[in-house]
Design brief:
Length: about 325
């Protein structure tokens, strides 16, 4: 199986490590099923030129079972224990997420091993029709969203993700709360953003035309759906009354490392999660090194100077763009 970057051997000091957790065992804690339906990017209105630039034509799936009953029980307990160690962050948190944990794998080995499990990655790879591995940026590899304390706020407003593939797993009984539905726009992200008058990935809590909005139902806790999140315009609506609504959002990266990568490190560099800049630097250096290694094997002695310059630009551009974004904060 193709691998991703290992978790760092350090941990941000703000994140409190849980003790006495059960050991994750895929044979005990997973019950992976397949979605009944998948909506392609083509069906959402993307043209072939855009789809060609994506890892696959996969768009979003219906909800399918991920956890066994025992796995759900353990994961709920772990995520509830992390609640008092939530992120205190601006970045996306200031206008999107109400209450959340990023980098949950630093706090919980059970969560880290779940997100890192080859069984999960292979299952999702088959659904998305592209080889995936746990995301190489720990902050987004293992995330948890909680209901906001102020229920006048959306759980998560209309946005696209800074990574390509993720799954949204419902950890609470969906019959135990009103509102909070997960929805996506039945169209391209560009069209949805234009209707709301926004650009980029950041969110806004305004309603789109009901006839263009699809609600993804969760049959029960322990079920989740998959999306190519940087292409799907989506949100989680406000709760109608205070209640537990807890979801887990593991993210994944396309492998091998020299494959095209949709991770928006430049955008994430504006978030203030502890140690995130270093995580992103590891990711971009890893991807650039793989692209350069592939270039070594592909360079021909007959290549023109223009071809060599173009190939080097392609290999180095994401790393240099991220480096230049970081430099704005130190100069």
């Amino acid at each position: 199986m193709l691998r991703t970057l290992p978790f760092p051997d350090q941990r941000p000091p703000e994140y409190i490590k849980l003790e006495g957790e059960p050991v994750f065992d895929a044979n005990i804690h997973l019950k992976l099923e397949v979605p009944r339906s998948v909506t392609s990017l083509k069906a959402l209105g993307y043209d072939d030129n855009i789809i060609t630039e994506c890892p696959s034509d996969f768009g979003v799936s219906s909800a399918f079972r991920i956890f066994s009953d025992e796995g759900l029980t353990v994961m709920r307990d772990v995520c509830l224990k992390m609640y008092d160690n939530r992120n205190i962050s601006v970045g996306t948190g200031v206008n999107r997420l109400g209450s959340y944990v990023r980098g949950a794998g630093y706090r919980s080995k059970f969560i880290k091993d779940f997100c890192d499990s080859p069984e999960l990655a292979e299952h999702l790879s088959a659904i998305a029709d592209v080889q995936l591995a746990r995301h190489s940026v720990p902050a987004v590899a293992c995330g948890v969203n909680y209901a906001p304390e102020d229920i006048t706020r959306a759980v998560d407003s209309w946005h696209t993700d800074s990574v390509a593939f993720d799954i949204v797993i419902m950890l609470s009984d969906p019959d135990g709360f009103e509102g909070g539905e997960f929805q996506y726009f039945e169209g391209t992200k560009m069209e949805g953003q234009e209707l709301l008058g926004i650009s980029g990935e950041e969110g806004i809590d305004i309603d789109l035309p009901e006839e263009r909005v699809v609600t993804v139902p969760f049959p029960a806790a322990g079920y989740g759906f998959m999306q190519q999140g940087n292409m799907i315009f989506h949100r989680a609506r406000r709760l109608k009354k205070k209640a537990e609504r807890m979801t887990m959002i593991p993210s994944f990266v396309v492998v091998p490392a020299h494959a095209p990568d949709a991770t928006n490190s430049v955008n994430m560099a504006g978030w203030d999660d502890p140690c995130l800049s270093a995580e992103l630097a590891r990711h971009e250096a890893w991807r650039a090194a793989a692209r350069l290694e592939a270039l070594v094997d592909n360079i021909s002695l007959h290549d023109t100077r223009k071809r060599l310059v173009d190939d080097l630009d392609v290999a180095l551009a994401p790393l240099l763009e991220f480096r230049n974004r970081l430099s704005k904060d130190v100069n």
